[in-house]
């Protein structure tokens, strides 16, 4: 039982963050967990105007029927009322409640490796070099990248010069010697706007793996 701020700090220190966003809130495992804890557990939405704790951009909302008639203060947070079909309610952030964390499915590796070595490291120890296909994935990866020890981090973006295309490796079998003739791969800058850059893949950088 913790206040919303205590719950957020606990989740960030021990997992990734308070549960946030549409996909996580609809997950069947979440329903089973929250039904077992009861007592309207906190999740990662707070008013400022309402935004998610982990920075997700989801606009999905599931407020209770009294939401439009409620008066709000700046110190209000959101909780899920499971005796009301899981609809959301607001409460003071200082109230102590159970809460639900989630663990991110990407990990920053603070070792310097070439792009190819990073690829095989991720595939040997996790799943693959990370793929980024939407803005929320970009936001979560760049939060990891901020803690890197190198100015860029490798991601799973590869360039084939002969075909003049960029592509995400996504656990595909890859004949690097046959497919690549210019040694270019993609990396994200760890500061600034976290844009993607083409880098010589013999450069040794930190990198980000996906866990599944």
TrEMBL record:
Gene3D superfamilies reported in the protein's UniProt record: Mannose-Binding Protein A, subunit A
Q: What CDD domains does the entry give?
A: CLECT
Q: One Pfam annotation, family name?
A: Lectin_C
Question: Which top-level group of life is the source organism from?
Answer: Eukaryota
Question: What range(s) does the C-type lectin domain occupy?
Answer: 1-102, 101-210
Name recorded for this polypeptide: C-type lectin domain-containing protein
């Amino acid at each position: 039982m913790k206040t919303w701020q205590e719950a957020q700090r606990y989740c960030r220190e021990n997992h990734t963050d308070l549960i946030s966003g549409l996909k996580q809130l609809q997950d069947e495992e979440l329903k089973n967990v929250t039904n077992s804890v009861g007592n309207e557990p906190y999740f990662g939405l707070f008013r400022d105007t309402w935004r998610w704790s982990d920075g997700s951009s989801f606009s999905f909302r599931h407020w209770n029927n009294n939401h439009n008639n409620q008066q709000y203060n700046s110190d209000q947070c959101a909780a899920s009322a499971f005796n009301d079909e899981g609809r959301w309610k607001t409460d003071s952030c200082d109230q102590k409640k159970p809460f639900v964390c989630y663990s991110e499915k990407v990990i920053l590796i603070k070792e310097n490796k070439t792009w190819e070595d990073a690829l095989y490291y991720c595939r040997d120890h996790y799943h693959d070099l990370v793929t980024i296909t939407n803005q929320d994935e970009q936001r979560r990866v760049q939060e990891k990248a901020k803690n890197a020890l190198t100015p860029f981090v490798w991601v799973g973006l590869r360039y084939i010069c002969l075909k003049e295309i960029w592509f995400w490796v996504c656990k595909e079998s890859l004949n690097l010697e046959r497919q690549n003739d210019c040694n270019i791969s993609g990396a994200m800058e760890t500061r600034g706007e976290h844009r993607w850059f083409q880098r010589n893949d013999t450069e040794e950088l930190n990198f980000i793996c996906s866990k599944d």
